[in-house]
Amino acid sequence: MNPFLTRGTLAVLATASLAASLTACVPLVIGGSAVVGTLIAVDRRTTGAQVEDEGIELRAANRIRETLGERVHVNVTSYNRQVLLTGEASSAGDVQKVEQVVRTVENVQSIVNDVGVMAQTSLSQRSADTFITGKVRASLVDARDLSASAFKVVTERNVVYLMGRVTQREAKRAAEIARGVDGVRKVVRVFEVLTEEELSRQLAAPVTQDPAAASTPAKP
Length: 220
What we know:
By secondary structure, this protein is of the alpha/beta class. The protein is built from eight helices and seven strands. It holds the Pfam family BON.
């Protein structure tokens, strides 16, 4: 067994375990914002988009909580200003209300609303989802033909959502890897697809700040 990959895998799983402890305390989970500072140098978004995604997640979570309280359990994940909503709500009306609230958040460009009308998941289910997320991330790290930092992974009720700015080849390969992880029931791809030429140009260019994003004031 390669010791380097083993350490990388354990590090990812340790991060997932920490996320699980936070999820147990807070019904609204903010996707991936805690490690933005670490990933900023290798992320395929501009630095402005990364900061803006973090702000979108925080503001959307706050507004959902203020509007709907404990009636919903919603995970808000933003990647390059595309927002993924997962979780549970007590009615179809609440599902739509969640989306309406998120649309009021500054700089949101599109929304994928996959909040289910059902009872809120148990702590054990959320812990299992967090563990699956960790295993998928570890598998992406172990893959030699992918850049794991290009992907954001979210799991809800054993369904894995993959986000990122990737090529068709990368999207297909990542989905195959995720489907092979024990416990994964389904894989949903929420990608911004790049051509191989676009990716080559981006990787050759320096990471830049997004002026429009940087100048937009954040509101709670």
